[in-house]
Amino acid sequence: MYIKYFQLGSDNLAKVKCLICGNLFDKDKESNIKVSNRYVHEKCFYETEQGHLLQLEKYIKTIMSVDKITPLIKRQIQRFHEENKYSYNGIFLTLKYFYEVKNGDPHKARGIGIVEYVYDDAKNYYEQLQKVAKNIDNITLTKDLTRVFTIISPLRKNKKQKIDLSQLEGE
Predict the structure, then answer these.
(1) Per the count of CB atoms within 10 A, which of 22, 56, 109, 116 is most buried?
(2) Ramachandran category for residue 36: left, alpha or beta (phi over 0 → left; psi -120 to 50 → alpha)
């Protein structure tokens, strides 16, 4: 009979395989999300559609200061996703654009209906950001940059002339 013994504290006990990327990782040391009975890197999870939906819901809860997503908002998310073919990440970025870049007031809104009207503006905004980031990556500096420091000496105060008291007594 073959019995395999595990040492307490062994590194093998907490290693799991990521459901998405397939890499092994330590579930106790790395951030992860449990999906049914399996584990996924948090980074891998947020790259999936399900992860984008969860990220969108978390953001809505945060900006609207609510504990649960209302049925109205769930219907709006579903309608935007199915009828308008907006991705969950697109809806998330649109809301982020409207509330953080355009400084919209989330407390005036009952839902997320603004997404329809701002989606194209947000899309253009993020495309421009990507272009700028790409252009920055393409820039190469040809000159050596040098910094020139000029040290200004502190101004000296005029010293008052000392008076000789012995001269004052003689007068």
Answers:
(1) 56
(2) left
